[in-house]
Design the sequence.
């Protein structure tokens, strides 16, 4: 069995699972007060070069986005995001359910444009009716974005400066951060992110863990954040489950290794797609590749291998996501190559 | 290291972890559409003798209580619970955050009294001002209760009849259901619960899993419940994590075995407490024993072994929870015996 | 036609209506920026001897309670109230719908007892599990209470001291404040309330206005409170409607006169009830009198004059509210006397 | 004093105020059970040719939009609206605060285009990831729109058909409905609206009342809607206040007369704007005219007469709203003519 449907199709990276095995019967306090969570927090602080950061572990990405955004927004504020932002499109309204109205901006290769961000914030704050509107209180970006693209260091700095100018918090969704950090030619690393963001999360679920995301507040967390997590149903009794996993992920470079594997497999995937004359929707340096397929070919392929539906750019075509991950092997790629050969272009 | 602090101090039952290992690299679809989750659902339906039940897996208890209650209540309804109910006291307001006002009743050994339940529902619905009040829409019970006590079959039937009379849904929180099902002399089993409740959950986190609770709707789930879970941040991308674990828990009687172990260890714990002249707050047939300690003795004990603070019945005493679980061993009990010998009564 | 059903059965005090007539065609800005609202704010500040108070006008009591409580509570906090508190019983869950869990205390003649308040706050804040619970963040009292009773100056000071000790905000619901301020022997006035409370409202709807409540924050309002009001649907476009009315109510002692009238009529009502051997549920110095009637007599009376159902203390009796107001006249009382003569005691 | 700032600058139409005076001292039950409210409901049903409609009175527009939308949406649904829709831009996030995520569409002269609506609904419902998204459950339109434009009968029918095809409810915000109904050449009347919408409201605040909006559910209201109103702080104790006013508004054609006056004054306003070479942003047949002014001229004008800021199409210009209403007189127009003469074009 193989799959390119997403990057959460298998369990945990074997080294993560091994660590769960080793620690399984050592009793620990609950709710994140265990020694493994503390170790993981220390390692994450070190990786971020941010010794005073506060770190929390939540179980999933949508939950994390909603809880963190709600915690950093004031009641009169909303969050600016790209129209394609995960929080705006694929979270079933979870941020709004916690009170965070989303102020959408057009996406530019999946990203926010610093100039457009400046204009929106400036025009909102200059609006004479602002007290009847939603103030721009935070900016949501994802890195990699929903299209698998990456911000450059200069872009992140520009966005951060806009945020500072308008007293907006900068929040980065790092669901697939491992793949972003290890992309070729990227100049963005964890210390940079920690130096620019007010909050961000290091994704576990899609980067080698069974579940779990590590939320980092470089300058400290909102007051009583643990109570806030509990109130929104996101406090795990066995906090150790995330603690052990992130401890493993941040030991001996495993998180980087996972990212590197996913990216390398994606580069080889691109070659296979090109060989079969499948155009990519945009050039993407991370582990998700978005291909444009005529519907007949899409349907033929999906019968043989799981791939991810993304959208219909027109009635006759489908944009399809091919995702690699730490568990993608040569055998996966070879099998895909065969499938694509058996499903030629129909146009 | 030993602990009696709670029943979620260790990882997973070894058989559960073994199953995670075996299935780790088999790719599966996300969000609960995997084969393991489907197997687990079938086994749970069989165990409940309820072939048409709908089953969902969520990651934790507070989340499950809030999401399920919100899904079964109408906007004009609230939920009746014992004053000691977990949703009322120890969930940081999570149910209210999703719109479920709690209508408290006195607890009788941790339980709701069917007669008092009848009176409350009847008086609310007869109140001429009810349209300015909160209608009784559901009844929350836990089994075992927060005091570790159990309903009898007759009590559950009586409560169910009151619910039916007043068109209230009956919801059972089974965070520690394994220990309740295996308690000596209990006449309550899963088919009975499934026949009486509109919704309940079979606890995993405290009964051998790393995380996860299995929500069962015997007569079918609310419409679009999966979207509702997502909206409230509770949909796991790797649904397989819960699926594999519950598949293991409901294979070869493991869930019962876990319950049996916890209860047996609790029975032996009771003997040790009695030997050391430590009175229990009430007689409890499950895995939690609530002991009344003078504060000095409590402080002496907690320095040597983790136990759970519960409450202060008076300024000089503390009610302390001693919890057993599937991981409690003879060595745990022997060590406790020694600790208690070293911390004699101070009164 | 006469009525004793409540204190909002008629329109506005004629002097209030007259002021609406006089100002009707003078154009003014919206949303509370009109000159009448500003006048009213100045007069209320003067009446409260609190020149720096911030004052806002909302349209009704339930709305005001929910919005103000939500604005002064932190996400981890709830509000302590008497079990009989209006917010707990008769607001359809409105405070909880805005996130304010209510922590109930027993009522003592409708009031909170300062000692019991101290004990609850102290025990919550000492609870080792408080991070899983709801912190006590505010205290809700009503003056007059739901039973028409009044706090003394000493009681309010004692409650305020408890609040200060535990960093809780004190909020006073003054839906019927006019009647409380003018009750015989009360030593509580507006400057005292303003000196002790963090927020309170001066009721208009039940004290002579068509609608409207004046919220007072003696030490300043929460940031962007106007936006908060808007967000919760409570910002009136024609803010002048409340402004003009409160301007009139706080001109030439009208608010006091309204209170005095209601109280005086209630004193005469008590004499009539006593003459007809109708016992009061408790001794009440304000405009609401709660009488205990056998059900047959209650039903006979309500056919002839509107009175208010309150509750059933036992299956054979009903507690009935007889409310007076600024519009209660001698003719009302004489008509009631006749009705009661025609509906004798049936026991 | 004159104003063109908005259409809620004065009190009530004199005939409305007169009716409040006449009824002031007639006691009535609270919460909308009064005879005046019942009369008003009957007259509205008749005006809508919809004898089975359920009618409720709320105090303001933002409140009404949020409460009604929340009541007609299922938990998995959101509401489609134009990007310029009042609920999306000028309600401080009130709909989202009650759980209604807004799905924006481009505006076409302030309106939704039926074809674009069809495409959005169709593409959402065909999306394979819809269970992670927000279903289109309702469509919000305003008539007149935020730009003062009007739907034609054919456009409303086309939108209604799209709604029916996709099982979406159609909701119409009629804050300024009087002016829309009386616009020249409009073929939309109340019976048409009632026949096409699942819910709509007839605006009072901006059409002659002190406050109040009449919500109409032509096919019946959501269950326990009165409780829902209460829960969201929108139930008026003195329901008579709205009842009396709408009774007056729907007696002897007053609502139409108010609309006719506002529209006629707007037509004369347009002539004055044209005379002074002030371009309108678009051709608008109702009581709001949006003029494009260079900033210097805008600032000169606003010092002499209140007008409404709308937006900045570019840094040097401002779009300004000139609103007429039932209280706009010849003297208002003459004064404006003089002001504009004194503030010539600066470009």
Sequence:
């Amino acid at each position: 069995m193989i799959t390119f449907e997403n990057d959460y199709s298998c369990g945990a990276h074997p080294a993560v699972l091994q660590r769960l095995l080793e620690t399984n019967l050592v009793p620990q306090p609950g709710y994140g007060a265990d020694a493994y969570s503390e170790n993981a927090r220390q390692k994450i602080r070190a990786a971020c070069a941010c010794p005073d950061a506060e770190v929390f572990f939540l179980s999933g990405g949508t939950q994390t986005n909603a809880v963190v955004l709600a915690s950093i927004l004031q009641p009169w504020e909303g969050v600016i995001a790209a129209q394609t932002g995960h929080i705006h499109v694929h979270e079933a309204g979870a941020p709004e359910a916690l009170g965070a109205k989303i102020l959408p901006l057009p996406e530019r290769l999946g990203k926010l444009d610093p100039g457009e961000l400046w204009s929106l914030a400036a025009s909102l704050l200059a609006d004479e009716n602002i007290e009847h509107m939603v103030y721009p209180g935070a900016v949501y970006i994802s890195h990699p974005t929903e299209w698998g693209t990456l911000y450059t260091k200069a872009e992140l700095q520009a966005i951060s400066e806009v945020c500072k100018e308008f007293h907006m918090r900068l929040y980065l969704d790092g669901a697939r951060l491992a793949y972003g950090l290890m992309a070729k030619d990227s100049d963005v690393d964890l210390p940079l992110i920690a130096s620019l963001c007010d909050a961000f999360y290091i994704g576990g679920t899609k980067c080698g863990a069974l579940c779990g995301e590590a939320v980092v507040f470089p300058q400290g967390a909102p007051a009583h954040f643990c109570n806030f997590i509990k109130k929104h149903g996101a406090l795990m009794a066995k906090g150790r489950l995330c603690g052990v996993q992130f401890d493993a992920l941040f030991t001996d470079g495993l998180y980087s290794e996972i990212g590197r594997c996913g990216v390398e497999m994606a580069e080889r995937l691109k070659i296979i797609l090109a060989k079969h004359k499948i155009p990519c929707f945009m050039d993407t340096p991370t582990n998700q590749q978005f291909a444009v397929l005529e519907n007949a070919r899409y349907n033929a392929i999906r019968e043989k291998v799981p791939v991810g539906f993304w959208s219909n750019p027109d009635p006759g075509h489908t944009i399809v996501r091919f995702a690699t991950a730490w568990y993608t092997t040569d055998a996966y790629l070879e099998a895909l190559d065969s499938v694509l050969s058996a499903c030629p272009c129909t146009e």
About this structure: Residues 53 and 219 of chain B are 6 Å apart (CA to CA). Chain B is about 40% helix and 15% strand. The first helix of chain B runs from residue 14 to 23.
